[in-house]
Amino acid sequence: MSSLTHSMQLILTLVKTQGQVLKPLESTLSVHGISFTEWLVMHRLYQSSDHTIKRVSLADAIGVTASGVTRLLLPMEKVGWVERVTNARDARVSLVRLTSGGLEAYQQATNSIEHAANRVTNMMNQQQVEQCMGLLSSLHLSAIDAAQLS
Length: 150
Fold this sequence. Notes:
One of its GO terms (biological process) is response to stress. GO terms for molecular function: DNA binding; DNA-binding transcription factor activity. The structure is a single chain. The chain is mainly alpha-helical. It has six helices and three strands. It has a domain at about 20-125: Winged helix-like DNA-binding domain superfamily/Winged helix DNA-binding domain (Arc Repressor Mutant, subunit A, Orthogonal Bundle), CATH 1.10.10. β2 and β3 form a beta hairpin. The chain is globular and about 55 Å long.
């Protein structure tokens, strides 16, 4: 049996850890009727000016395809968390906006998810959290670079 490289061990640990981290976050958000991916959509919209963003930019920001973000947004539109917006300058550009109902749902869910995030990281001190964030940011940039080379 061959042993895995350190890089491959890191990737496997990240995947396993992601699953373990998402469990309490998803559980916390389910009380609000929101999945973690839906919360990511709301979070990205919340960060955008006028809470509005191009669909394709939203897809890139949360790591899904354009068709994937469309499938994700449909139920969110039905419950009134997001709405389609026409671009006055270019009708081909599809925009999505966080509604006032979506903003309220996002803010309530964010309060809950903050508590869950604190529980997930409770065995780490502030310095360890910051170090981890720095290392993961470097890995993220490295992954972006690798994807562009593919």
